[in-house]
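User: These chains co-purify. Model them together.
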Amino acid sequence: MPIVDQLLPEYEREMALTRRLLERLPAARLSWSPHPRSMSLGALASHVVELADWQDVISRPAFDVSAASMPPPSASPAEALDRFDRHVAGTRRALDGRTDGELLDIWSVTRGDDTLLTMPKVTMLRAVLLNHLIHHRGQLTVYLRLNGVPLPSIYGPSADEGAS
Amino acid sequence: MTSRDALLAQFDRETATTRRLLERMPADRLSWSPHPKSTSFAGLGRHLAHMISWGPPGLTAASTDVRDRPPLPPTPALADILHAFDANVAAVRALLAGRTDAELAEVWTLTHEGQPILTSTRYAVVQSLILSHMVHHRGQLSVYLRLNDIPVPAIYGPSADEA
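Assistant: Joint model of the two components:
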């Protein structure tokens, strides 16, 4: 089975689950944080949103950390959802039709002329970006719970929804 | 690198990270939960250890009935959770290392009283049912640790506590 036939449906499924959580962000609570050392709800949600964007890894051979800048956190749930939807639409287009050869191409993280690490693109997409997103999405479920937001089922029923 | 080798490398890395969080759970506060509707440390820990045990049926059987689901760790004690986690990781790792890419593309079916409720390639049993599911609940566990002032290890990058 071509890699993309496994990866694209999995991306679609995970992003659909992610959107259901982002849709429930309480606008009045974005600056809330569960602990002084924790990210705020708004910062965590924005981090999840940015991890949905795979376009740069798919289309370019390397990422130069010295030229990197984090976009500012979304100012509202609507803005976060809009960014997320654009990332997902763009990633879907970028991923569709990619050959195994393209997805197994080596991708690098560089700092100027130095190469810091290399891995096949599919490893960066599946094992780094997607797992990283799922990790922070898991944290987001606790943040939402602590704010009294009912949780959708994710991999199985939550205490609020999905029990048969 | 075959997809089996890439999956095995990912399995090793993610289970090692998960163990680092599990072993920091406070043995004297395992019944702590952040919210009345949330599971406890013990509940999360048992679930994390248990989900790996879908590996042996998912990697070897044609189908498995939910009634034949492998058992949970015997008690909510931290030592039992860690022991079950280690045993399940070792069993799945050995099976996965012995599978070919073609075998990982075979389909496994989970049934309930004979009716199929889930079909998945063996590859996806490990990738999604075990690893994605583990990463999700491990993310929750990282918040539980923080709320108890326990340093959170680096996971995909440095935490506020450790690089």
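The first helix of chain B runs from residue 3 to 22.
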